[in-house]
Every structure is written in C-alpha cells, then in structure tokens.
Design a protein that fits this description.
5-stranded parallel sheet, globular, alpha/beta, oxidoreductase activity, acting on NAD(P)H, quinone or similar compound as acceptor, NAD, Rossmann fold, binds flavin mononucleotide
C-alpha cells in the first residue's frame, strides 16, 4: 500500500495550472497503482495560519496557553500526515519569485526542532527518512534557464526546506511561461505532463 500526500497551494482554483497537473498526476498514479491511498491538503481552501507571537511557542518552544497548544496540535497533525506518506506531491506556483505564503506557513509548522530536525555535534540533522517528493512548479515566466534563472527563489528554497528535515529524494517538474499566452500555456502543460509520466513510471514508490 502506498500513501500519497497531495499538497496544493495555488489561489487560482479551477484556473490553476499546478492543480491541473497535480490532478492529472494523481489520476495517472491511481491507474498504475489502484491501491494507493491519497490524502489531500489544500492550503488555499484551508490555510495553515501564519505563526504569531501568540502561537510560535507551540512549534518552537514549550506551549502553555490555549493558542500555543492549538498551534502544536496543528503542527503534530501536519507532521504526522507527512510522516505517513511514501510520496508527497506538491503543487507550488511561483509567487513573487518564491513560494505562496500559505506553503511557507505549512513549512513553518513542519520544520520543528527535535521533531523533524535536530542539532548534533555533527551539525544539523534532518529526522524524516524515506519520503519521496515530487514538486510541480508553475511559473508565469522562464526560470529554468536564461537571464531570469538567478531570480528563482522558489526551487532552491524548496530544496533547502525539504533537505533540512531529511527529505532529499525530490524531483521538480516545471510548467513555465504560463503568462506568455494560451499556446505557451498549453505547451507548458503538455511538457510537464510528459515529464510527470516519466517520473511516475520510474518511481518505485508509486508503481509498486
Ligand atoms: C501573487 C502572484 C505572484 C506571482 N509572481 C510571479 C513571479 O514572481 N514570477 C512569475 O514568473 N510568475 C508569477 N506569477 C504568475 C504565476 O506563477 C503563474 O500564473 C502560475 O501559473 C501560477 O500557478 P497556478 O496556475 O497553479 O496558480 C504570480 C502570480 C500571482 C497570482
């Protein structure tokens, strides 16, 4: 049995390219592996709250107040969901050269000292093991090559966040130039779908 966690973070609903690609990937996975169990977390419909002075101790300290205990309970829930997954599919649009703030709020609850990462004499250690992540990145422009490559604070950031908690088996699939008209959008979607097909078929965690 494979557990798949699907995280969407686009605010664009039905018009979202990342959500369309995530849907198509899940459909394909279920064709090749009908016994896969899929859990959905939509960070746009049901946002994880941003940390505040009243909640941060729930994730980073010793919770005492009701607000801190509620933040810790949510953090526990999100981390348990992540740990239960063999594969995580993340739909991540590029917003202002980085990730949506809703996805950042999710990471703020998941990067937790002594739970998902720890400091040792050897340095920082990610505590999550054996999780494979596929990130679908939708972008208005082109960032995988050319002069705007250095403005990509989305992919290196996601790689760092995931690596920090021990998740190093990460594949990025791009849908770029979404803002360059309908033809470019269609080409980006078809290119990303073809890449996703390769990634799904090659992925032991998904097809076995
Ligand atoms: C708030 C916001 C910020 C955006 N910032 C960027 C950006 O910095 N660079 C870019 O290439 N596209 C940017 N875009 C365009 C989106 O990346 C593009 O529309 C993409 O398809 C969004 O993913 P989605 O279709 O899954 O919602 C932005 C869109 C929004 C709504």
């Amino acid at each position: 049995m494979n557990n798949i966690l699907v995280i969407n973070s686009s605010v664009s609903g039905e018009a979202s390219v990342s959500q369309l690609l995530v849907r198509s990937a899940v459909q394909r996975v279920l064709e090749v592996n009908p016994s896969a169990m899929v859990t959905y977390r939509d960070l746009s419909d049901a946002p994880v709250p941003h940390l505040t002075a009243y909640t941060v101790a729930g994730v980073r300290g010793m919770p005492e107040t009701q607000a801190e205990l509620a933040a810790q309970a949510l953090s526990n829930e999100l981390i348990d969901e992540l740990k239960a997954a063999d594969v995580v599919l993340i739909g991540a649009p590029m917003y202002n050269f980085s990730i949506p703030s809703s996805l950042r709020a999710w990471f703020d609850h998941v990067l937790r000292p002594r739970v998902t990462f720890a400091y040792s004499k050897a340095g920082v250690q990610g505590l999550l093991k054996g999780i494979r992540v596929i990130v679908i990145e939708s972008r208005g422009g082109l960032y995988s090559e050319g002069p705007t490559k250095e403005m990509d604070f989305q992919e290196p950031y996601l790689k760092t966040l995931l690596g920090f908690i021990g998740i190093t088996d990460v594949t990025f699939v791009h849908a770029e130039k979404i803002g360059s008209g309908p033809e470019a959008r269609e080409l980006a979607i078809e290119t990303a779908k073809a890449r996703l097909e390769e990634v799904i078929i090659d992925s032991e965690q998904l097809v076995i």
